[in-house]
Amino acid sequence: MALTNRYTLPAAQRLKSKKSIDALFGTGQRTTLGCLRIFHARSGEPGVRIGVGVSAKNFRRAVDRNRIKRQLRECYRLQKDILSVMAAKKPGLDIFFVYTDKELPDYQHLFSQMQKGLTKLLAIHQAD
Question: Which helix (H) or strand (E) segment is 86 a member of?
């Protein structure tokens, strides 16, 4: 029995190096959508790579920050097929999601915000 659509987030699709993240924050575009601030830019690597972050200023306890980051990754992982058109293109896309609200999020709210954000990114980079 073969699975046709695997909802995984392998290491190759994660934005991990400090150099890449700094370049994204320095030269990338910024879009704010509800409780999410989305930094995005074209990269030399093929495919889509993502990173997530939460401000320690808004959430003092690491357990809360880690929970929000885990939920953001899960929301992206389940909806990353929205950007499947972008994954095949040579100049790939780097995306960093920052949660900016001051209260712990509801998962359904995060899921809908992520969906809106991904469709907005697709519209922006489809024109490129």
Answer: helix 84-87
Each residue of 49-65: pLDDT tens digit? 999 999 999 999 999 99
Task: State both tokens at 108.
Answer: 């359904």
Which pTM value belongs to this model?
A: 0.90
Distance set, CA 102 to CA 38, 60, 68, 98 (Å): 17, 11, 11, 12
> 12-126 maps to which CATH number?
3.30.230.10
Which among 96, 95, 90 has a CA at the least distance from the CA of 44?
90
- Number of other CB atoms surrounding residue 26 within 10 Å: 9
Name the residue ranges covered by the structural domains of the chain.
12-126
CA dist 18 to 31, 82, 99, 116, Å? 21, 26, 19, 27
